[in-house]
Amino acid sequence: MPNDADRFEVPLYSVAEAGRYLRVPTSTFTTWAYGYARRRPPVRGEPIVTARPATEHGEAVVPFIGLAEGLVLAAIRRAGVPLQRIRPALTRLSEDLGIAHVLASKALYTDGAEVLYDFAESQGDTPEARGARELVAVRKGQRVFGDIVEAYLQRVDFAPDGYAQLIRLPEYQHADVVVDPRRGFGQPIFSHGGARLEDVLGRFHAGEQLAEVAEEFGVPPDELEDAVRIASKPAA
Question: How far is it, in rounded angstroms, from Cα 115 to Cα 153?
Answer without folding.
Answer: 16
